[in-house]
Every structure is written in C-alpha cells, then in structure tokens.
Write a structure and sequence with these properties.
The protein has helices at 15-25, 64-67, 71-77, 91-99, 109-114; strands spanning 2-6, 29-33, 38-40, 43-45, 57-60, 81-84, 103-106. With 118 residues, it is α/β, with parallel strands linked by helices. It has a 5-stranded parallel β-sheet with strand order 2-1-5-6-7, with helices on both faces. It has a two-stranded antiparallel ribbon with strand order 3-4. The longest helix has 11 residues, at 15-25.
C-alpha cells in the first residue's frame, strides 16, 4: 500500500524516519515528502507536490500550522485515511477530511505497525 509520509526526515532520530523504515519492513510503499529534498532508506524525499497515484494513507509528521498549505492537496489525493501522529492533531483539518469522507485517526504510525493494526 502507498503511504505518503509528510514531514519525512533523513535524521534517524526522527519519528518520521523510523516510520519510513518500519513501513518498508512491513512491505508498504512509503512516499517521503518534506520541504527539504534528501534521501531516506534509499528513497528520495520529494520536496514538490506531485500526483502520486493511488495513495491509501497519509501520515503526518508536521504541526497543524504547517498542515494548512496541504489541506486541499491531501483532500484531492482521496486517501482512505489520514493519520495524525502525536503532536500533529488538528481538529480543523480532521473536520475537513471527514466532510470529504476521508477517515482520520489520532494515532501513532509506529505503534499501529508494531501491533498489526495498520
């Protein structure tokens, strides 16, 4: 499954990095996205918004203020769900997603993967 990771990082200490590693381990296809182009786990971190085709899940690692510029782009992707990792919770965006019939979860991608609930 394609998983767009917004706020991707090539710093191994960051949770977004750990999420990309774990997504690969569990045979998902992470699509790293951030303001800074780099490489993580052999994947290019994209820094320009694209049409990535079928994105099942968007997992957020950016704060609510930074999310605002991506609202319409994420809605246009029509993912099945958006995961708001700890610190990214955003009632305004969650309401918009729900209005567009996109599931929202306030959860931790790492925990979901490790307990088989992803």
């Amino acid at each position: 499954m394609n998983v767009l990771v917004i706020g991707a990082s090539n710093n191994p200490d960051r949770y977004a990095y750990k999420a990309i590693e774990m997504l690969l381990k569990y045979s998902h296809q992470p699509i790293p996205f951030s303001k800074k182009k780099a490489e993580v786990c052999g994947l290019v971190i994209e820094n320009e918004w694209k049409s990535w085709g079928d994105v099942h899940t968007v997992t957020l690692y950016i704060n609510p203020e930074l999310q605002k510029v991506y609202y319409q782009n994420i809605i246009a992707l029509k993912p099945k769900r958006v995961i708001f990792n700890p610190g990214t919770e955003n009632p305004e965006f969650e309401a918009l997603l729900s209005e567009n019939e996109i599931e929202t979860l306030e959860a931790c991608t790492l925990v979901m993967l490790s307990i088989g609930q992803f």
